[in-house]
Design a protein that fits this description.
By secondary structure, this protein is mainly alpha-helical. Helices cover 86% and strands 0% of the residues. The protein contains two helices and no strands.
Amino acid sequence: MTELEEVQRQLADLQSQLAFQEHTVQSLNDALAAQQQEILLLRQQLALLKQRQDEHSAQLDTGAGVGLLQEKPPHY
């Protein structure tokens, strides 16, 4: 094998490795973007739950929820 052929083979190997790495980086980027969207959705849901809990706590503090606490469940 001549020196030129060896350099061409090495160049082809490097190009192949680069293509594989680019594909891997793109796959990781896609996964990260999907996780970020899921985190944003979960944060919104958590904020909504906190708001509902705060509203419920406020109702209990004002006495509006006392009737609910004394009411028997439907299976009684």
